[in-house]
Amino acid sequence: MEILQGIDLLKVKRVEKIYLNYEDKFLKKILTDLEIKQIKKKQNIYYKIAGKFSAKEAVVKAMGTGFSDGIRIKDIEIINLKNGKPIVNLHGKAKKRLENVESSSISISNDGGFVVSIATFLIKK
Questions:
Q1: Is the pLDDT of residue 50 over 90?
Q2: Residues spanned by the domain of 43
Q3: What backbone torsions phi and psi does residue 32 show, to the nearest 5 degrees?
Q4: Residue 49: which of 108, 122, 103, 124 has the closest Cα?
Q5: In this structure, what DSSP letter does residue 43 have?
Q6: Residue 118's CATH number
Q7: What is the CA radius of gyration of the chain?
């Protein structure tokens, strides 16, 4: 087994500024339709957008690739279960890159205008 882990820290004001300039065009560029549907139901939309973006960054850091080698931001989907727990769904090249995932975990937290995310994958060798 191999453990892959990535972390990301993001200032929410950066996301808020971009969202206020581009609104849904920005969301459609970085989020899947299901992610957009979930954040639009919530208050504190800037924190929700930042959380999903930060979690995606943590995932590609865990992979060791960043958004390169054909991995697109929408290949990583961060969905919240009914109880609020975030989970990661991989698609496209991201799924191929981590095809032997035994389990995964995403944690997203915020405080003081920042969002931090940690992604962990347990990979079968």
A1: yes
A2: 2-123
A3: -80, 170
A4: 108
A5: S
A6: 3.90.470.20
A7: 14
**Residue 40 pLDDT class (50, 70, 90 cuts):** confident
Mean pLDDT for the chain? 94
76's enclosing H/E stretch is: strand 76-80
Q: Which two tokens stand for residue 93?
A: 């090249």
Bridge partner list, 77: 89
Name the token pair of 57. 């960054």
- Alpha-carbon distance 100 to 116, whole Å? 26
Alpha helices in the chain (DSSP H): 12-22, 24-30, 33-40, 45-63, 92-97
Q: Read off the pLDDT of residues 52-97 as tens digits, 9 standing for 90 and up.
A: 999 999 999 999 988 888 899 999 999 999 999 999 999 999 999 9
Q: How many CB atoms lie within 10 A of CB 118?
A: 18
pTM strictly above 0.90: yes
Number of domains in the chain: 1
